[in-house]
Amino acid sequence: MGTNELTGMVFNIQGYSVQDGPGIRTTVFLKGCPLRCLWCSNPESQTTPKDVLYIRAKCVKCHRCVNICKNGAISYNPDLEPEGYVTVNHEICATCKDHVCVQGCYESAYEDVGTPMTVDQVMEILEADQPFFVQSGGGVTVSGGEPLLSHEFLRELFKRCKQSYIHTAIETTGYAPWDNFKSVLEYTDLALFDVKHMDPVIHKQLTGVSNELIHSNLEKVFAETKTQVVIRIPVIPGGNDTVENMQATAKFMKKIGAREVDLMPYHRMGMGKYAGLGREYPMPPGVETPPAEKINELKAVFESNGIVCHIGGNH
Amino acid sequence: MSTQVSQHAPKAPEQMPRKIKLNFDPNGKMSDRFKKEKEKLFAAPARLDVQKLQIETDVYSKWAASKSYSEIKAMIFDRLSREKKVWLDGNPICGHLTNFIYGGYIQPWRDSYWIEDDKEFALQRGVHKTTEEERKIIQECGKFWIGQNMQDRVRPIVKAKYGLDVQKLVDIGLGLNFDDDMGGMVVPCHRTVIERGLEDVLRQIACVKSKCKVYGVQAPDPTAGQVPNENTILTSVSPTSDYKKWHFLCACEVSIKALIHQAERYAALAREAAASEKDPCKKAEYEEMADRCSWVPAKPARTFKEALQAQWFITMGDWQNQCMTVHHAPMRFPQYVYANYKKDIEEGRITDEEAIEFLQFWFLKVNTQNFVMNPELAIWQQSRIAQQLTLGGLDPATGEDGTCEVDYLILEAQRRAQCPEPLLSVMYHNKLSPKFLMECVKLIRTGIGQPSFHSQEVSMKRRLLHEEGPIEDIRDQAVAGCVQSIIGGKTDGTWEARFNMTKMMEFFFSNGRDIKTGVAYGPAYGDPCECKTWEECYDRLYKYYEYWIDICRDISTLEWNMERDHPTPLGSAVTYDCVERGMDMVDGGARYNWGDGVCLAGSVDATNCLAAMKKLIFDDKSVSMEKMVAAITANFVGYEDVQNLCKKAPKYGNDDPFADELGRRLMRDYAEIHNRKPDYMGRWTITPSAYSVTAHWAFGKKTWATPDGRKAGECMTDATLSATPGTDVKGPTALIRSALKLIDPVVYGSTHFNVKFHPTALEGEAGAQKFLQLVKTYFDGGGYQIQFNCVTQETLRAAQKDPDSYRDLIVRVAGFSAYFITLCPEVQDEIVSRTCQTW
Ligand code: SF4
Ligand code: SF4
To answer: Which sequence positions carry the modification called Glycine radical (chain B) (predicted)?
Structure first.
């Protein structure tokens, strides 16, 4: 395939992202992820094919969409709630070409998740935002999902960014074959690299995969590339928020030469999307954003190891 | 005293930019004393003061035949200054606008609603029910004003000339403020009062009078002897003859002396209070008050406190002459009081904490300003008096950053006090210090919606496009009105009617009718189905714009010509170069002209209408013109499929060239049509304007369904560059890029852009810095004005449910900060639903 035809399955392009690297950034979200983290706030990004999100709050329960969808993916469920709602079979949507429900619902209760975009199309948006980058020392961040699943597209996009003097960042789980990873890093200025847990068994429980590949890739990024790295740790109450785990992470960081970490407190803002995808929210009920004292306690662990530690991504 | 024009550049060159030295507690709170005074003021009931109505009616009925208009205005003010009630309260700054803590005056010459048997009058904060006694006075006076007020004078002429009923045009939502919200708007030179004192102005008047030839040789009309043509008829302005100058100058003298007299009455009161006061602390304070009031505004202010007292006296006096929105704003206030502040600090007379409290007391005075409205009008006027206070800006003499300590103190005073007025605005330029800008963010974070930002560069370019002047004047840009810019103290104020962009869509689809009533207005250019191509369709629309913009200009020009019968001698006396030229500003005496022409609202709605029409009817052909006409006429009832397509058509605010380019074309055409005629004095400084205040709401209510998918009666889009709620799905950088394209702010006199921020976007130093970088990119791209609402939707919803606990909540509605709970429910809903940017 020629580089011009390469497409990425983009599910959102968000201007003025202030949490995803230095300056004002435009974040490109790509669909598809090999991990299944319990706390994921972008569940629509986990599968690769196009999908639709059903936003119940907008739905007025007219049930027109049941007939609009020619694939029979939508059914009317009078028992669901007092007034009845529609449910969507997302497996059918994954193979749907036209997504007529999105145009067809008068209340805009369906949203497209995933639009195949070429490198040119994405570049057009990034170049339009470039004045904001220049002003603030910002640039593009590609997030996901796991953007490395689309490594060919990503490499080409970043190559073009560098030709246009745009700072490039990737937000990654680090879970990808090293060769794919390395080919992208050639054009990557900054990697926001997730480290979720130091224990391989617990890591698997929390994310569905073990952490060996992730950790070996992280070592290699330091050993073999010039890309700047910031470690990101989602702080999950009852998941990875122990002082011991943070201590182990700090030790590992020191060993490989990582000097900067962002603690990202857990939040529940993605909860509504699970409902929109017809899925259960995987986090146990009652888990809330950790209090500031807790975060500060964990921050102190890193600082006592001489590691620069930020809370949140806006710095 | 020479009559030379004083430029008022700082005398001794100070080192620029200034080194800012501040000494106050950044976490400080309101003092108990101030808090008490603030609560007292905001709890005070709205009252109507009929004393001035009686005086005004009496003077007019006795003297209209023998005195000039200037003299009549001066006589009214003179009597009011002698007869009105004066008293002291807990505010160390003296002077009450009316006989009540929070009272307003009827302006009988302006409109006629008050003569009708209305029992209620609206002020900016509340409604006054008239008593039987007041009713009697109003009815008695009203008899005199029937047929004598502006509306009664303008409307018959419009009817005779165009066959149009002005009230009907308002009722169907075509426009607003044809003949009500006007008046010779004063933006006086506060420096004159603070630095020179009014006695110096009296000396200057005497000097000009001594050169005045009163024997009445009238200068010839410059067009005399020429065969008149369309152009000369429009532009010939009768020059002012010397005896008129004499009258004007005499009126200035009387007005100034009247104001000094009012000040002296306060001085006497304070002296008495001091004499009988036992508490030595209070005694000393009364003595100081007496001292100040017997010195200013007659003589140059010697201290910071005197400067503020002088500023309040002239503002109060001017508002007693004419009260209306945006009138007599503080302009570049920090610049005017800086010298006094600096001297006080150097000589140890004041601390920054004291200065902050005194500024807050002055804020309270500003919050007593108000004008009385028809309660019906008040619904869309909202709680605005628009006392714009300009921070930042350039130093006129050096072109360096003009920011001084007082700018910081005002930000801090407002952070602690949270008053709806004055409205803080920053004249933005690239030399502003990062520290100052961070302080601005700190205030924005409180959710007060202040300060807004205005571009110094665009303001200067705009002025240079129309007028010549020394660079010191051109640099001296202040924010005025809602979102406009002017040269403070040297400019007269004109502004014309407001125009509803989307009404033309309705006329297009209905062949010139108001759909709701079925009544035809103006020309009918034919069945829309005749339009076979997009260009034909646009041309047809253009014709409607052409006709109606011209009508709005004509009515405004007529109204303004009559406005010349209502001069403002006190305001003119302190506005360059009215005294020097012996002309009131309504006759063109000021050095510069504001020239705010017919102001459009609904630019974004109109853009979205064009985009939907072109896309659906002509490009995709998914809806035929016949079907669109039927759908619009039926208010989309039974045509939900069409409405759905309309709603999903391209929308402004997403950097989508399809929508943005159509809008830009319309805005360019509007400006071109608008600028075909000069203003009421033949001046070509008049420019189209683009802001909504709350007109988008009033117009929306009266406009039928539109092809952007909006149903009849629904609110239109706020401001003129903000996106329709929920349609800017690409985020703020795309929205800003669209905004930079839609309206050329150098050609237009204003643009208006509200962006709502969730407080999380401003968190921390990094959040603030990125926010400022966003602002800077907007200005570097040529943007003119932007303002931010930083409140959570939760807060707003809670305030709707429990207004009592949220009395303090201020939001910026379209150019104005207002207490959220004082807005009508519909406007509240609109604010809550405005897309909340939670990045
Ligand atoms: S999703 Fe839309 S079309 Fe379907 S029932 Fe809800 S409102 Fe009706
Ligand atoms: S995406 Fe396709 S299959 Fe799924 S609901 Fe919509 S129209 Fe039906």
So the answer is: 815
Q: Name the residue with higher pLDDT: B808 or A108.
A: A108
* Bridge partner residues of B498 (DSSP): B176, B599
Of residues B642, B722, B673, the one with CA closest to residue B541: B673
* The pairing of beta strand B816-819 with beta strand B810-813: antiparallel
* Residues B71, B61 within the same domain: no
Distance between CA B222 and CA B199 in Å, rounded? Answer: 36
CA-A62 nearest atom, ligand 1: 8
Same domain assignment for residues B538 and B671: yes
User: Which position has the token pair 């000369």?
Assistant: B232
Q: Is there a single domain that holds both residue B61 and residue B77?
A: no
Torsion over CA: B192, B193, B195, B198 (sign):
positive
ipTM: 0.91
- In angstroms, the CA B338 to CA B355 distance is 12
Cα B838 → chain centroid: 31
CB A195 within 8 A of CB A246: no
pLDDT of B833 reads 62
pLDDT of residue A18 exceeding 90? no
Handedness of CA B677, B683, B689, B695 (dihedral sign): negative
Identify whether residues B541 and B632 lie together within a single domain: yes
Q: Is residue A38 a contact partner of residue A285, using CB atoms and an 8 Å limit? A: no
Chain A contact for B737 (CB, 8 A cutoff): yes
Query: Within chain B, which residues score under 50 in pLDDT?
Result: 1-7, 9-10, 232-237, 812-817, 835-839
Q: Answer yes or no: do A237 and A204 share one domain.
A: yes
**What SS3 class is residue B498?**
strand
CA–CA separation, A205 and A210 (whole Å):
8
CA dihedral B643, B649, B651, B657 (to 10 degrees): -160
Sorting pLDDT into bands at 50, 70 and 90, what band is A82? low
Cα angle value A308/A309/A313 (rounded, 5°): 125
Q: What is the 3-state secondary structure (H, E, C) of B460-494?
A: HHHHHHHCCCCHHHHHCEEEECCCEEEECCCEEEC
**DSSP calls for B725-739:** TT--TT-HHHHHHHH
Are B648 and A108 inside 8 Å of each other by CB? yes
Number of domains into which chain A is organized: 2
Q: Using an 8 Å Cβ cutoff, are B509 and B613 in contact?
A: no
Contacts of A135 in chain B (CB under 8 A): 773, 776-777, 780
A180 and A79 assigned to the same domain: no
What's CA A15's distance to the chain center, in Å? Answer: 15
User: CA-to-CA distance for B92 and B84, rounded, in angstroms?
Assistant: 20
Residues of A with CB under 8 A from a CB of B: 13-19, 23-24, 26, 103-104, 106, 108, 128-129, 131-132, 135-136, 138, 312, 314-315
- A88: domain CATH number is 3.30.70
Q: Is B85 helix (H, G, I), strand (E, B) or coil?
A: coil
Q: Which residues contact B382 (CB under 8 A, 6 or more apart)?
A: B693, B694, B813, B816, B818, B822, B823, B827
pTM of the model: 0.91
Diameter over CA atoms, chain A: 62
Residues A140-160, mean pLDDT to the nearest whole number = 96
Query: How far away, in angstroms, is A111 Cα from ligand 1 center?
Result: 12
- Of B5, B9, B18, B14, whose CA–CA distance to B435 is shortest? B18
DSSP designation for B11: S
CA A231 to chain centre: 15
**Helices (DSSP H) in A29-99: which residue ranges?**
64-68, 90-93
